[in-house]
Amino acid sequence: MSEAVITEVKDALKGMETKFNTAMSGLDAFKSEIAPKLGKMDAFDEAKFNKVSETIASAVEESQKLTGKLKAAEDAFETKHKLLEAELNGVKTALNRPAAGGSNDSDKEAKAQHKKLFNQFARSKKSNQQDFHEFIEASDAPAEVKALSVGSDPDGGYLVMPEFGGIIQTKVFETSPIRQLASVVNISTDAYEYVLDNGEADGEWVGETTAPTTETTPQFGKKSIVVHELAAKPKATQKMIDDGIVDIEAWLAGKVADIFARKEATAFVSGNGVGKPRGILSYAAGTDITQEQIEQVVTGSASTFTYDGMVDLQNALKEPYQANASFLYKRATNAALLKIKDLEGRPIFNMTYDKNAGLRPTLLGQTAYFANDMPAIASNALAMAYGDIKAGYQIVDRIGIRVLRDPYTNKPFVIYYTTKRVGGGVINHEALKLGKIST
């Protein structure tokens, strides 16, 4: 309440008090004037006079009560006025203090002390969930901060902290599911050798007394898949490892494992075999499996796949491999395939629903897998593979991911020397076919 309002209320009370005193004086004069005449009144007039007197007395009593209430209100206003004056003086005193975070030495020391206290609090590991203000109370009191503001760290911004979730949102990379589809074997040496049975015996029809002349005996061949080494060397400071909001070592291990998986998947598709596994697309075109050739079926168009070309690709594979065969192509290629329409404008291919696997793309009745490492549709590109990948491609693991933790070589960094030895190659060339966009 303002000072002007309080003054106005006081003036009103004084006016009412003056009017009341004037009324009381008039009543006393009336009594003095009427007293000599009371003896001349009859009973009726006396009763009327007594009634008027009682009414006046009641009015006087009510007026006295009102005066008391007004007096109490005046006292309350006076008390409130004094409290407001005291509060206003306190605000003026606070505003007249020098601002926190100024340029003088004491302000700089206070700011540094505040920052130091918060850093200590942020790095302390308390099992009882200690609050910051409890930490401050248990520490040396910092310099007074006049006003709290989120925009200034020392003036309260430290107290408004973001809440960290338990999950780091990580960028997702697409890869190729070759390891999921191929054969995988673990070995204890640096190469995997396998025997080739690509020959065949010969036979002929003979009569009852005719001796056979065929003496062809099948022969064996031998090939080997050499393992190669993947390596990474991430590093982090010991302080980061100790104080990070997540398990830094586990996070680094996950990132390295992810890049290793994508690197080897790329090699299984297109690797040249030099220092890395040899991929499906690196073999020469042809049908002579003794020369490690893989048949390439041309689609008939230089800009996309055609229905006829895919039918030719599927039927180039021998029947024993058809039961376990699947298509392999880039996700973007799938969009182009679903847009292929018949002469009536209806899509030729669709997606089937598997209650166990959800929506699964199929092509010509066979399962299709998206392989990000397969080439995009372009002239002369090997943009599709079809066949029994498990029978055709062999992955060789020498040892899983191995991590050597080195805190000494490059202090204060801890180096995680991570390696994996893996190889891969086609072992059955007739089990795979490649779809090629026309030149």
Automatic annotation (TrEMBL):
In terms of domain of life, where is this protein from? Answer: Bacteria
**Compartment(s) where it occurs, according to its Swiss-Prot or TrEMBL record:** Virion
InterPro entries in the cross-refs: Phage_capsid, Phage_capsid-like_C
Q: Enumerate the spans annotated as Phage capsid-like C-terminal domain.
A: 156-436
State the SUPFAM superfamilies in the record.
Major capsid protein gp5
Q: Which Gene3D superfamilies match?
A: Major capsid protein gp5 (3.30.2400.10)
Name of the featured protein: Phage major capsid protein
